[in-house]
Amino acid sequence: MNYFLTEEQKMIVETSRELALSKIKPIRQKYDEEGIFPWDIVKEMAAADLMGLYIPEEYGGMGGGVFALVLAVEELSKVCGGISLAMAATALGTFPILLFATDAQKKKYLPDIASGKKLAAFGLTEAGAGSDAGNMQTTAVRQGDYYILNGTKQWITNGGEAETYTVIAMTNKSKGTRGATAFIVEKGTPGFDFGKKEDKMGIRASATRELVFTNCKVPAENVLGKEGMGFIVAVNTLNNSRPGVGAQALGIAAGALDEAVAYARQRVQFGQPIASIQAVQHMLANMATEVEAARALIYQTAKTIDAGEKSFAKISAMSKLFASEVAMRVTTDAVQVMGGYGYMREYPVEKMMRDAKITQIYEGTSQIQRNEIALQLIKEAAKSGK
To answer: Three-state DSSP class for 118?
Structure first.
C-alpha cells in the first residue's frame, strides 16, 4: 500500500533499510548466538541521525514524532528485532521525559539521547508486579532535597547499558496507584546497581537486567511531573510507546514473510518451485494480508498520536496486540514454509520466530491489551449513553 510518505519519511525508511542490510545483517547471527549488545550499531544509528528521530528539534532531535520512530524500527526489525531494540527501548525510556519533564529536565537529558551518546530505559516491572503494576514494592522516601529509593526492577530492556533511567516507585503505599512517583535516575548514582544479564529465548542481542536500588539517593529535582503522578506517567508512556513495539513486531513479521517468499520461489519439490503449490500460496497470501493490516493499524495509530489527539489508548493497545499476534503467526508459518531448513539456525526465520514471542509479552501482554481495549469500548459506550 502507498502511505504517501513525505520525502523526509522516505529518507528515514531508506536510511534505516540500508543500515540494516549493510551493518546489521552480516552480524545478526553472531550477536544473537553470543548475546552481544550492539554498541557498534548504536554508533551507526547515531551517525545516521536515527536515535533522535522522535525527539523535538529544540532538544537536538529530528522532530519526526512517533511515526518517524515507527518507520525506522520497522525497517531495522526486518533484519533483527533484537538489535533494533537498542533504539526502541531507548524511546520507551525517553517518553516519560518527553511527556512529563520540565523544560530544564528536557534540556539536561534529551540532547544526549537524541545524539545517541546515551541510551535510556524504563523501570516499571518487578518480580511481583508485572501486569499488576499496582503491586509494586520499590519505594521512594523523601528526605530533604532527596528521595531514597529501595527495591528491584526486573527484566529491564537496555538495563546496564543505558545511562538514563525513568523509574516508577511508591512514595505513599497507602494511596495505592495514586501513591507512585516517577523519577529520572542516572547510571552511576550511589546505591544503583544491576543484576546479571538475563539469558533469553529471543532478542538476545538486547540486554535485559534487574535494576537494584539500595538506599539510592535521587535528587528531588529528578521527579517527573509531581509526586503521586507515577502511574499517570507510566500509563501515558505505554500508550505512546506501544506503536513502537507494534513496529518491532511488524518488522519481524515482514522480514519473515520476505524470507518465506524468496525460499518458496527457489525451493523445488515434485519438479516445480513450491511457490506454485496452492497450499503454500495460501499460506503466503494470509501472511502478507496480516502484515499489511498490521502496518495500516500501526501507521494510523502513530499519526493519530502525532496529530495531538487526546484519546488513543484503545487503538494504541490494538496496534500492539494485533501486530504482536501477527508476528507470532507469520514467523511460525515462515518456518513451516521452509520446512526443515526453517528450523535450522543457518536460516534467519527460526531466530525471527524466537524474537517474535516477546512482543506478545512485554509492555503489556496480549491479554492485558485486550483488557484495555474492552475497558475503552465500555467507557465509550457509557459516554454515548448506549
So the answer is: coil
Q: Who's near 75: CB < 8 A, 6+ residues apart?
A: 13, 16, 17, 20, 251
Cα–Cα distances in angstroms (integers) from residue 368 to residues 57, 123, 322, in the given order: 34, 18, 13
N-term to C-term CA, the chain: 36
- Residue 133 has a pLDDT of 81
- Residue-wise pLDDT for 8-48, tens only, equals 999 999 999 999 999 999 999 999 999 999 999 999 999 99
Query: Which residues does residue 224 pair with via DSSP β-bridges, in sequence order?
Result: 182
Over residues 257-266, the pLDDT tens digits come to: 999 999 999 9
Cβ atoms of 100 and 240 within 8 Å: the answer is: no
Helix/strand/coil for 265: helix
Q: How far apart are CA 266 and CA 272, in angstroms?
A: 9
Is 0.85 surpassed by the pTM of this model?
A: yes
Catalytic residue among 126, 161, 363, 372: 363
Average the pLDDT over 52-76 and give the result: 98
Give the H/E segment covering residue 247: helix 230-266
pLDDT number for residue 260: 98
Residues 6+ apart with CB under 8 A from 260: 283, 284, 287, 333, 334, 337, 338, 349
Q: Using alpha carbons only, how large is the chain's radius of gyration in Å?
A: 21
Distance CA 83, CA 74 (A): 12
What is the pLDDT at residue 293?
98
**Catalytic-residue membership of 18:** no
- Kind and range of the H or E run holding 166: strand 164-170
CA distance 3 to 291: 14
% of the chain at pLDDT higher than 70: 100
Can you give the pLDDT at residue 1?
Answer: 85
Domains of the chain and any CATH numbers: 7-119 (1.10.540.10), 121-227 (2.40.110.10), 231-384 (1.20.140.10)
Residues forming a β-bridge with 146: 143, 219
